[in-house]
Amino acid sequence: MIVLVAFAVGLVTAGIFLIGVVITISDAGPRLWPHGERDWTYWVHYLGWGVHVPAFVLTVFLDAGSFFTPGPLAVGVGLFLIATGLVVAVAAIAQLGLATSTGIPGELYTNGLYRYSRNPQTVGLVTAIAGAFIATGSMYVLILGGLDALVLLLAAIAEESWLEDQYGNSYEVYRDQTPRFIGLLIQNG
């Protein structure tokens, strides 16, 4: 029963995030990502994540094996992907800074992991989500993780115009020299 509640809460919050990022991309309403300031969109967004993340984690732990029973290799690969993804995401947040990572304007940062990806936090989180599914074999984790990955990937698209407005030509040069997610292009300097 608890897993159904956690899954339902995860679905509702992921659905709200998805609607918000689509609204932002379509320019049909308020900018819901990135926020630009700590207004109502900022607080609603992080309250939502504060509910969503525990629901996702509960689902990971309570629904293991509902789609397939992972063997030791799958569990090992999954745990490796979770750990690697979280290390990348946390390192990227530390490099960019917490405020800027939460959608508050800061300096354009193009070093560290950001030399190789404009969205290393997304790369890390999607990797961890994939690892969670592989390690658990959970149908609910597959569904929630898929929605979360979609939201994260669309958020990277949604923030492009905002970044262009904030940083102008500097961002355009960075964007042209650095892959959105993963690649071998390396910016000069």
What is the topological layout?
Elements: H1 2-26, H2 40-62, H3 72-96, H4 98-101, H5 120-136, H6 139-177
How would you describe what is shown here?
The protein has 189 residues and is mainly α. The protein has one domain. 70% of the residues lie in helices and 0% in strands. It has 6 helices and no strands. Helix 3 (72-96) runs antiparallel to helix 5 (120-136) and helix 5 (120-136) packs antiparallel against helix 6 (139-177). The longest helix has 39 residues, at 139-177. It is globular and about 50 Å long. Its main location: membrane. The chain crosses the membrane at residues 6-28, 40-61, 73-94, 125-158. This is Isoprenylcysteine carboxylmethyltransferase family protein. Keywords: Membrane, Transmembrane, Transmembrane helix. One of its GO terms (cellular component) is endomembrane system.
